[in-house]
Amino acid sequence: MDPDKILIATVEVKNYQPNEISLNVEHGKIRVDGKHHSEGEFGSETSEFHRTYVVPESVDPSSVSSRISNDGVLYIEGSKIAPKETEVALVGSSHASGDVAKIDDKKFTVTLDVSSFSPDEITVKVLNNELTVKARHESESHGHFTSRQFNRHFVLPKDVDMDSVVSKLGKDGRLRIEAARKSLASPTERQVKITMEDDE
Questions:
Q1: Which residue pairs, CB below 8 angstroms and at least 24 apart, start in 25-31?
Q2: Lowest CB count within 10 Å: 65, 73, 114, 123, which one?
Q3: Rounded distance, CA 152 to CA 124, Å?
Q4: Residue 55 CB-density burial (10 A; 0-12 exposed, 13-18 middle, 19+ buried)
Q5: Beta strand pairing call for 29-40 and 21-26
Q6: 80 CB contacts (<8 Å, ≥6 apart)?
Q7: Half-sphere exposure at residue 81, Cβ-oriented, CA atoms within 13 angstroms
Q8: What GO CC terms are in its UniProt record (predicted)?
Q9: Cα–Cα distance, 34 to 29 (Å, whole number)
Q10: What are the pLDDT digits (tens) for 127-184?
Q11: Secondary structure (DSSP) of the chain
Q12: How far apart are CA 195 and CA 67, in angstroms?
């Protein structure tokens, strides 16, 4: 089995056809229903079952899938949720330099000390989910040439809305950059198709 998949449950369904079984995922629960009806020479036969399982916290509900093995067992599986990124990578900087990056449920915020640079010497760029801040200062006085530069690179979580990035430069020389995080979609119910495994 795929190492990123988790087996949630197995159900014996030898007496059922795939079209007699339904599987629904809603509000963190999986409901499996089966109903079989057949007419025979001596009458009719009806059988049914209902099962409910809780989606494990480590499984993405939208990834739940099912398959029926050749020996008549329904396997219900799901993919692991990717770990949440709670820290933002700051390349080439430290807290000692006055850099502070934070991320919470609603937004990403970074504060940078750029007091050694004027506003027109600072550039803020976004590309995909990456944020780059650069500053460069050059001056010449009494035959002495001075050059300073500043580079910061951030890789943000995928759910940060890069179109919402704004930056503000305070009078204290600190640059504050903010971006909103996209809200998670509400739980939705969906029908999961049941497929038969091929003979090996």
A1: 25/55, 25/61, 25/62, 25/64, 25/189, 25/190, 25/192, 26/187, 26/188, 26/189, 27/187, 28/54, 28/55, 28/61, 28/187, 29/53, 29/54, 29/55, 30/54, 30/55, 30/64, 30/76
A2: 123
A3: 10
A4: buried
A5: antiparallel
A6: 4, 5, 6, 58, 59, 60
A7: 11
A8: cytoplasm; nucleus
A9: 17
A10: 888 888 888 888 887 767 777 887 888 887 778 888 888 888 888 888 888 888 876 5
A11: --TTEEEEEEEE-TT--GGGEEEEEETTEEEEEEEEEEEETTEEEEEEEEEEEEPPTTB-GGG-EEEE-TTSEEEEEEEBPPPP--S-EETT--GGGT-EEEE-SSEEEEEEE-TTS-GGGEEEEEETTEEEEEEEEEEEETTEEEEEEEEEEEE--TTB-GGG-EEEE-TTSEEEEEEEBPPPPPP--EE--EEEPPP-
A12: 5
Q: Which two tokens stand for residue 76?
A: 């219900």
Name 175's bridge partners: 112, 169
The two tokens of residue 96 are: 């000692």
